Automatic annotation (TrEMBL):
Keyword Repeat: yes
Protein name: Essential for maintenance of the cell wall protein 1
InterPro entries: TPR-like_helical_dom_sf, TPR_rpt, TTC27/Emw1
Organism of provenance: Hanseniaspora osmophila
Keyword Signal on entry: yes
Matches recorded under Gene3D superfamilies: Tetratricopeptide repeat domain
Amino acid sequence: MDILFHIHLLLSTPIATFDKAVNDANGSELAANTYHQTTKLILEGQSANFVSNWGKEYNVQGLVSELEQLVLNQSAIEASQLQTAVQQKITGYLKENFVCNDVNSSLLLAIALLQTFIQANYTGPAPNLAFPKTSDRLKQTVLQLLSCSGQPAYELCDYPICLLLSLILVDLLTGDVPNNAESGVAIPIIDRSSLVPFQSICLWWKARAIMCQLSLLHEPAGDAPVVASSIYSSIDLVASILADQVKTLVSENTQRELYTIFYLENAKCSLAINTEHFCLPSLIKAQKLTNFQFVLTGARAKRTKYQSVAHANLVVLAKSDDSLIPTDTDDAKVGNRTDLPQSLDLNHEMLLEKPVFESIGAEPLDQQIYKKSKITDENGFNEDTLLPTALRQENIPILLRELDPNSQPKLNNLDDIQLLLRLYTLRQTSPAKDPLVEIELSALVTRLIFDGQDTDTKDWSIFSRSLWERSIIETTKAKTVERGLLQMQALVEELGLKIKTTSLPTDADAENSSSDNGMTRMKYIHQLPFLPRWNLDATLAEKYMSMGILRSAVEIYERLQMPCEAALCYAAVGDEKEAERILEQRIITNPTDCRAFSILGDIKQDPELWEKAWSLGKYVNAKNSLGKYYFNVKKDNVTALKHLNDSLKQYPLSFETWYFYGCVALEHGNMTVAAEAFSRCVSLEDDHALSWSNLSAAYVELGKLKQAHNCLQKAVKSDSQKNWRIWENYMMVSMKCNEWDDVLLCCQNLLKLKKDNNSMSIIDLPVIEKLVELLITSEYDPENQRLTHFQTSCIDFVCVQLPQVITNEPRCWKLVSKVELWRKRPWAALENVEKAYRSILHNPDLDVDEKVWNDTVDACEDLVAAYESLGEMEGRMGDLVCKDWKYKARSTIKSLMSKGKKTWDGSEGWERLLEMRNDM
């Protein structure tokens, strides 16, 4: 059955495993299948040979000649019409020669074309492809067909026609061919009941081809990200492939592996289209499928050669379940692993190559608990997070607790990819240059690089990607920046592609010696985020730029023919004139480069340039810049909303644009639009606290208090930055909804968040007064009935937490006194009335401000009344609360009179004091 071959193509199954699977299924029948040898050729990494033979057999030279003639004869027409003509010519050729005759062979051809393009531009070594050469004009037209919404495809990629042919083939096979280059593509609907296995496989390869196309762009744009996301969003795609008749032909491990790589590719897609907050659910499902266990924890380690005492360090403990999905170690050893990239030594006079750990939990357990006394068993370990963390030794899973952190076992390759994808997700969802995040990333990379002791079992793609990520981290540190830069240069040159210059000594025969490594390098290319060779070079240039090495960065950008990046380099260092010159020259040579127009508009702040970029190719960043310009400069919210709306119609997956759109709508007062915008924000990123808070603000204005309250509940759960304004909004909305338990919770958190502020703004007195009123109107009888949660929490807040931060606010002390009196603790109530009086008595304005003087007289009157009413009550130890209350009352009055006699003798307050003294 042909579906069996396609399943192994999706998995990039090693040849030995593939042959065994075919023999086990039905050797004589399947091995004689027409597609058996073609499938083996692709699995062996010989896609270029298959494409070359196909080109000769079906006269691709004739097709290219026709396209060249078409480009030559229609040089005067508009570019969009030329692109449509070229696309229709290719579509007609492929439909006539392949799709109408044999859809299975058509899919194999699409796969081979895609794999050839990937090898030529991503993995290397450069394929030996006998394919008709195209003129610069035809190549430019092909690249324009691969562009999306004004985002130009990279101009120096090799064999772009292979990718275009592959995309058109899968479009024909799935029935989603656009009529012209400008029209959108159909969004596939994945329905298990209506899908057949072959159609599902075509959709999967279509998503892979789209991901490859998106990697040619500077950033995702157009309908392509939506199409890829919709394909990867439903697991029914895999379920339809593994229909009942197919399940009997493949093992349970193969089925599990198919589901796993689907979830991994789903996470990769989310990373590529900037919806990285959707990665975690897919990664959790992949982890459960492979039964992968890992944890981030702490251990003492030595990091330098002369270090005598080990210090705390993060370490990732990880172990695979090798019984579920094989690591293909036998197949990996076939090539003796001579193709693995070289890991450069650190060669530092002080730093060790990797940390040397002591055993986990070397510190006594009671000391660990003592130092982290606030940590409970519930939050000590949570598996369903991006980076599960064990805060104490007993929180580490038993299987991982037994591992030696200096010599951990080899991981399954798919588990390695899970760690890499989590690394990318953590980086994209965390603040840039966060020190703690950098340490966590280093721990992940260290676990990947020093994965087992046998280098023969390492996969080329995973190992090289791990080295690359280590280099990214090391180039941010002074002591490791040298090795980081040299390693990055070595990895770029390791690809064996058409690199114009090299920075390290290379072996002249290196490319020839690695010519047979295409199979090993392509194994996991579709599960790892695409990194084209020019992106590697561009990242190296960014590192030079960050270190102030402008000339080297610009040289790389010029070599890569990336004028926009070179212009941004100059603009970043303040040389805007040179940046403008580069962009203007680019526009002259390529008048359809929307990105160049938009960046030039950003530098000059010229709306006409942004409008030009939009008119040329619907470039969404141009509309975003127009929106910001009219909002910040022109103060025209209506026009800003219009431009942002145009941008979102073109690319609706941009979280940043939706958020800005909502903020502009809030300021403009259009709450319906604001609610829609922030609803889209939380659907794209459901843990963004500010989006939930802003959505609640829109609902409040629309009169939807219940929805606003629910939004704020989610906002405070997602509020990792502890934003007191969110809690304050939550408190106000909860009051309107009469949710007094939530109001009390807000007051408690606000007290903690704002207690460093010396002003009394940390306390909202009317709210606390309302809480106290609700509390003391209830019955207090702890001997005969259990206190409610509200009563217990409110008593703790008012009588324990509040007195720790208030010092000079008499109203607060009086509130505490009321609660203490309600609790039948008259001695405590009297103490707080005394504190209220002292807080106002020490006011420095007492001698100059009559209002303060009168308030002090009021407080004195309250204290005298408290002495009179509470003094003879039963005290804490069975005696009276204040036996000599009359004496204290007279002393209080006398003291205040002596303090104010010089200034306030004869005033209204003074007369009241005289009256109180006479009454006593």
